[in-house]
């Protein structure tokens, strides 16, 4: 049973985490908060932004703040699945007998940075699917558990699309959030330059251990969700299906494929963490609305009309939320 003391400790722990991350990452409060929420909730994050906005620095800082091993995998067209998962190699003993020994790949770490993930071929991208969902890696018929907590943070550049391979739908769906990393403001740019003139290295201190992170995850999972709030969250997800019973006008007009059931699981898991960060023992409607964008933006597929009208996924989500609020209040 979660006590008031647990909630206070949870909130204080999160404040320490954000305080240390702010020493390395200037601005980007929403991106930092979203990444931490996903880590606590046990999800993966896809970061989309142009080069140089601090995506890699954020991941390195997370490794320092959580005192967890960090691996970086630079995705390129010639990267092979075995380069990610590891492979069996032949080892000879003193008598000359040959045996197979498994050599773990970089996926066997706690925090994985999949840099420019859309540059690798679909075959290599698929090597991450099992790890992201089941937290296991199967090589030559043998499944091996990954260390917990396990977290994949992937990056991609939205501008440069030459020589890239779009992520398959199954992989996109395994990311809890898709976070858009904006360019820094003028003030933030000045702070970044001043900071990096002193040192390019991360300076954040440890604020949470892996064991404490898993305990925070357990506490968050016990937060109750009122039936009405849960129904609203599922209504929000169902409203993105253009041919479903809850379809909104915006979904019928602009969406080709709606969000999967994983979106419903993600928005509730993340909302519990967000409520605790804000010092609350219950999930509010505003938590769901705030998290709808990172949860849904990569799970809905827009049709040609949306592209022709230059309507973004976030704009469609705003329309869906507006219509759902009106319909839901009436019902």
Structural class: alpha/beta
The number of domains: 2
Main β sheet profile? 5 strands, parallel
CATH level 4 superfamily of the largest domain: P-loop containing nucleotide triphosphate hydrolases
Helices and strands, in order, run as HHEHEHEEEHHEEEHEHHHHEHHEHH
Gross CATH architecture of the largest domain: 3-Layer(aba) Sandwich
Shape: globular
| Overall CATH class of the largest domain | Alpha Beta
Q: Enter the CATH topology name of the largest domain.
A: Rossmann fold
Mean pLDDT across all amino acids: 86
Task: Write up this protein.
The chain is of the alpha/beta class. It has 15 helices and eleven strands. The protein has helices spanning 4-21, 29-41, 55-65, 81-85, 122-125, 129-134, 169-172, 186-198, 210-221, 227-238, 249-254, 261-277, 285-296, 304-308, 313-330; strands at residues 44-48, 70-74, 86-92, 98-104, 111-115, 136-139, 142-145, 151-156, 175-180, 255-257, 301-302. It is globular. The protein starts with a helix and ends with a helix. The model has no long low-confidence stretch (mean pLDDT 86).
């Amino acid at each position: 049973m979660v006590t008031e003391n647990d909630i206070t400790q949870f909130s204080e722990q999160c404040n320490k985490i954000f305080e240390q991350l702010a020493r390395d990452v200037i601005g980007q409060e929403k991106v930092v908060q979203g990444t931490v929420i996903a880590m606590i909730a046990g999800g993966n994050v896809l970061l989309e932004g142009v080069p140089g906005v601090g995506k890699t620095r954020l991941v390195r800082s997370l490794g320092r703040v959580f005192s967890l091993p960090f691996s970086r995998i630079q995705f390129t067209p010639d990267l092979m699945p075995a380069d990610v998962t590891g492979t069996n190699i032949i080892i000879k003993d003193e008598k000359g007998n040959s045996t197979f020994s498994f050599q773990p790949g970089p996926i066997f770490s706690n925090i994985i940075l999949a840099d420019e993930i859309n540059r690798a071929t679909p075959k290599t991208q698929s090597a991450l699917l099992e790890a992201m969902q089941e937290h296991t890696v199967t090589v030559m018929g043998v499944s091996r558990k990954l260390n917990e907590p396990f977290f994949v943070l992937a990056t991609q550049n939205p501008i440069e699309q030459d020589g890239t391979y779009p992520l398959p739908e199954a992989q996109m769906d395994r990311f809890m959030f898709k976070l858009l990393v904006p360019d820094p403001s003028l003030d933030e740019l000045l702070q970044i330059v001043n900071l990096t003139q002193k040192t390019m290295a991360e300076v954040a201190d440890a604020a949470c251990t892996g064991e404490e992170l898993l305990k925070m995850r357990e506490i968050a999972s016990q937060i109750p969700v009122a039936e009405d709030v849960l129904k609203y969250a599922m209504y929000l997800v169902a409203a993105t299906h253009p041919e479903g019973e809850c379809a909104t006008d915006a979904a019928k007009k602009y969406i080709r494929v709606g969000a999967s059931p994983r979106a419903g699981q993600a928005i509730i898991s993340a909302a519990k963490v967000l409520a605790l960060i804000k010092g609350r023992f219950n999930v509010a409607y505003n938590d769901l609305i705030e998290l709808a964008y990172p949860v849904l933006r990569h799970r809905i597929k827009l049709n040609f009309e949306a592209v022709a009208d230059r309507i973004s996924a976030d704009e469609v989500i705003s329309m869906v939320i507006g219509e759902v609020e009106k319909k839901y209040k009436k019902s």
